[in-house]
Design goal:
By secondary structure, this protein is an alpha+beta fold. It is 25% helix and 28% strand.
Length: 166
């Protein structure tokens, strides 16, 4: 009986550590999926959704066509660098434009734009964090609440694939 008790004492910390309820995101995130029509960002590991978040997008609907059109792009990109932003707290750069975007820009004669980011919300006394999550307000970026952005910042590495769907 005493041996069973000792075995349980050693096993308890291991079982507690392995419990997914005790941590936020335990899996290695290998893809970020944004579904614009759902206003949702999903973190994926091997094709399975690990966690989902509400997002705000560009002010105008449809795929990005040119610089300044206030639309969020659609396609496959990479999270390729990050920074602390004075305006939007944490920000992760999306590798827009891709080859398809560059071809469209060349054909239209309009610049494709750049600086598409995954970022938090401004700290503004007049407009609290929750206000921004209730509408599409960006110039073409993908915005999350600051607590959600903090989670993504710590869970998603540079070099991670991001797919943005209509």
């Amino acid at each position: 009986m005493r041996a069973l008790f000792v075995a349980l004492l050693f096993a308890l910390p291991i079982l507690t550590y392995a419990n997914p309820a005790n941590s936020t995101i335990t899996s290695s995130i290998d893809k970020v999926l944004v579904v614009k029509s759902e206003r949702t960002l999903h973190l994926l590991h091997r094709g399975a959704v690990v966690k989902s978040y509400r997002v705000s997008l560009g002010k105008k609907q449809g795929p990005k066509q040119y610089e300044g059109d206030q639309r969020t792009p659609e396609g496959f990109y990479w999270i390729n660098w990050r920074k602390h932003s004075d305006n939007f707290n944490l920000a992760m750069h999306i590798s827009y434009p891709n080859a398809k975007d560059l071809k469209r820009a060349e054909e239209s004669g309009l610049p494709p734009g750049n600086m598409i980011m995954l970022h938090g919300t401004p700290e503004d006394e007049e407009y609290p964090d929750w206000f921004f999550s209730s509408l599409d307000w960006t110039e073409g970026c993908i915005a999350l609440s600051n607590p959600d952005m903090q989670e993504i910042w710590s869970s998603v590495k540079d070099g991670t694939l991001i797919e943005i769907r209509p």
